[in-house]
Amino acid sequence: MTQHAVQAYLPHAAIIWGGSEEERFRRALSLAAGRVCSEGTGVPCGVCAHCVKAMKGIHPDILIYDHSAESRLFSVAQVRAIREDAVVMPNEADVKVYILRHADSMNAAAQNAFLKTLEEPPRSAVFFLLADSPENMLPTVVSRCAKICVAPEAAPECGKLAEEFAAALTGGALPLAEFSFRLDRLGRDELRDFIGQARALMLARAQQQSAMAHRFIRAYDVLGKALEYLDFNVGVVHVSGFLCAALLDTP
Ligand SMILES: [Zn+2]
Asked: How far is ligand 1, taken at its centre, from the CA of residue 135, in Å?
């Protein structure tokens, strides 16, 4: 699989939520480094010129925005400025990464202004929105973003499930069916977290095990579809059943 193929599968917008603002910001910086990295895998290699600049906080294509100090709100004017900037080509990397700290301080008008950018995302722009919780944001905005939870208590549990999912995926029909029963017992938010972590893991595995890459990429797509169903309020049991059935169909 080529580098560009991996980039094409990475979301152009994500809400990074849970944990503390500092944890969210650190995760956003690391993800941003992964996007500008010349290896193009979505994970920072840590040694290329792009990664080094990203880690020093001086990469010209990683732009950090915060709400205005006076109003303590992300203003419509700020959002418009970001939209205008996002259509301008990157300086050095293949993408420009926008990190919006305290994105949940946008009022409805600012979020609606931002929604236009999410609906027609500029080809070379990626947005990371930092928020206490996706629930603080308009559902129309949330539905167009991947969700990445940094809460320490939520992450290991769903991370472990994601590992088991990867194992089931390569283990045949029975492990997959058994796995889908385990998903049935999750709450909606847990299932959402699991899907987020499992998708990230699928991309990593596709890189590591190129012979199985098509299977992991297919799982990544199916998980994305499952996430859409969740957003449309389809029940957890139906979503996990769909996951299992769709993946069993994969050659
Ligand atoms: Zn790099």
From this structure: 33
Rounded average pLDDT over 219-243: 87
- Ligand 1 centroid, distance to 25 Cα (angstroms): 19
Helix axes 236-248, 213-231, angle to 10 degrees: 160
- Residue 39 Cα to ligand 1 midpoint, Å, equals 6
For residue 194, what are its two tokens? 């699991």
Residue 199 and residue 176: Cα distance in Å, rounded? 16
Q: What is the tens place of the pLDDT at every residue in 110-165?
A: 999 999 999 988 989 999 999 999 998 999 999 999 888 887 655 557 888 899 89
Q: Distance from the CA of 36 to the center of ligand 1, in angstroms?
A: 7
Q: Which of 132, 150, 168 is the endpoint of a domain?
A: 150
Both 113 and 128 in a single domain?
yes
Predicted confidence (pLDDT) at residue 44 exceeds the cutoff of 90: no
| 34 CA distance to ligand 1 middle (Å) | 7
What the block records as the tokens of 171 is 């283990």
**Ligand 1 centre and the CA of 22: distance in Å?**
23
Q: Are residues 164 and 119 in the same domain?
A: no
